[in-house]
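Give me structure tokens for this 170-residue protein.
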Amino acid sequence: MGDPAVSEILQKLWPKPLDLTNLRRFFIREGDIVLFHSTKRRKVVRHFFLFNDRLLITKKKSDKAKYSHWVKSDIILFRKDVDVENMRTASHNHEFRLHLPNKMTYILFARTEEEKDIWVEDISKAIRGIHEDDRTRRKREEKEKEDKKREEQKEKKEKEQKEKEKEQKE
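Here you go.
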């Protein structure tokens, strides 16, 4: 079974993105980002849904509408020709850019510098395919905990053995 959050999000969207409920796909974050709309030559607020390998850019609709988010862009992130750029020296506050194939670039603005850094890091991880789902992270953390416990037990036994040898010499 896939990530239940993905199925929940799918219920809000129109048109329905193809293959969103892929078993390997899991939800990372969502939030409002300001996007510079090049054809309208102005900034617009869009709601972003980030998954481990995909980014949906949506326009919020009325809460009373059957589908609360209209999908404007569906971007496959886990590709070599996609990049995210943190615009630290930009004249505009909290700017970052998403570069796509065919020289298309989204100019984006977060509310805060901290929020921008989180989005840039998470999108970058999705592009590189290195996000962990909760189940994988829990398994890794449990294994690390078990390894640490084994190491501590080994060190304790070695210490006890050395003390025993020392006592026998005396």
